[in-house]
Design goal:
Layout (H helix, E strand, L loop, with lengths): L2 H10 L1 H17 L3 E2 L3 E2 L1 H14 L10 H10 L2 H5 L3 H8 L5 H13 L8 H4 L2 H8 L4 H18 L3 H21 L13 H7 L1
Antiparallel strand pairs: 1-2
Helix pairs in contact: 2-4, 3-4, 3-10, 4-7, 6-7, 10-11, 10-12
Length: 200
């Protein structure tokens, strides 16, 4: 898709996207969640959406997918971190979308939710990655999420970020392979090459 066309769609739904952003920020703030122990968690959500805004034209195939895509980016951690259920997410999405769009949005959020597990490997299991590969736009949003986290860890020097930076580098080959749906015929499942290059 042409970048200008995607930008026009995003601009058309600016009011709804802004409301989704405000709602997601408030939800994470309501459970006192922070990012890097110092920032409101909304900082991370905005970083993810910045990547979606920048590269979304490479995967978004129709106008009606814009709101589910942005909702998924803003709400991608809400089940995992704010005690929301799938049905809660559906109800929230329906404030701005029709039933079909809300279901797409909820499925995207659900796919981004880690499995139950005691370790990082258990939480990001093959079942988790399979769910991402099988859900429209989930590989793209997951890549945006990792790009946001990796960029932050590179730019902010403390022990925790240094550890995460090294972990992201170590995980990169497996991570990229795990989220690649190999469905080039359907852009909704694709990983933009320039995003992967930026991450690498």
């Amino acid at each position: 898709m042409e970048q200008n066309c995607f930008r026009q769609w995003v601009s058309k739904y600016e009011k709804e996207i802004s409301a989704i952003r405000k709602s997601a920020h408030a939800l994470h703030a309501s459970v006192n969640q922070t990012y890097d122990k110092v920032h409101p968690y909304g900082l991370h959500l905005d970083m993810v959406v910045n990547e979606v805004t920048k590269y979304g034209h490479e995967v978004c195939v129709r106008e009606e997918d814009v709101l589910p895509l942005f909702f998924g980016a803003y709400y991608h951690d809400c089940i995992e971190d704010t005690r929301q259920t799938y049905n809660d997410v559906m109800r929230t999405a329906k404030q701005w979308m029709d039933d079909k769009q809300a279901q797409m949005a909820a499925e995207l959020v659900y796919a981004m939710t880690n499995e139950k597990g005691r370790t990082r490997a258990e939480r990001a299991s093959e079942k988790y990655y399979q769910g991402i590969r099988e859900t429209p736009y989930a590989p793209f949003v997951k890549l945006a999420d990792r790009l946001a986290n990796f960029t932050y860890s590179m730019e902010h020097q403390n022990v925790s970020n240094a550890h995460m930076k090294d972990l992201y580098i170590q995980e990169m080959p497996h991570f990229l392979a795990a989220i690649d749906a190999h469905r080039e015929e359907d852009l909704r499942f694709c990983l933009p090459a320039d995003m992967k290059e930026k991450l690498q």
